[in-house]
Amino acid sequence: MSETNKSFQEIKDEFIAQWGALGTSWGINRTMAQIHALLMVTPEVMSTDEIMEDLSISRGNAHTNLKELVGWGLIRIVVKKGERKEFFEAEKDVWKMFTIIMSERRRREVDPMVNLLNTYVDNTNNAKGIEVEAFNHQLKELEKFVSFASNMSEKIAKLSYGPAMNLAAKVLK
After folding, report:
1. Cα angle vertex 106, ends 101, 112, to 5°?
2. What are the sequence ranges of the domains in the chain?
3. At what angle do helices 130-158 and 94-105 cross, to 10 degrees?
4. Is residue 137 over pLDDT 80?
5. Percent of the chain having pLDDT more than 70?
6. What ranges make up the beta strands (E) of the chain?
7. pTM listed for this prediction
8. Which CATH number is associated with domain 3-90?
9. 86 CB contacts (<8 Å, ≥6 apart)?
10. Closest to 31 in 3D by CA, of 2, 69, 4, 3
11. Exposure of 87 by Cβ count < 10 A (0-12 exposed, 13-18 middle, 19+ buried)?
12. Residues whose CB falls within 8 Å of the CB of residue 98, separated by 6 or more in sequence, listed in order
């Protein structure tokens, strides 16, 4: 079937599958990324049962990943009057999604790396020799760069979309 003959549902399912595959390269599991994609492109809130059915996943898998996505701030729980079920909706603002993901990755990946680099330098400060000096120098340079990049991303994330794009346009000239 050619790309133009695909149904909307096939294209949507393909997008969700591809977003899931991309998620693994961003440090999250495939199912978490697929749930995020499904909720991101679905205009109505969805229950856990609907998500499970749409993605053919178990209740435990759905529950674990929904909880994680809520923890990240990428989706939120919606309570409907008269319903006992929880419903979920994704953050739709792309800039806000980007800044949430950037902040979470910094917290989970960058901050621990900076702490690890500093620990290694601290633990070798009393050692002597050219190799130790070179090691510590390189780790300090890595820490300086990673901290700089982290601080820059934090400052950019605090900007609203328009000013951030204007800054990017100036920098990329």
Report:
1. 145
2. 3-90, 94-171
3. 160
4. yes
5. 98
6. 46-47, 75-79, 86-90
7. 0.78
8. 1.10.10.10
9. 47, 48, 77, 78, 79
10. 69
11. middle
12. 157
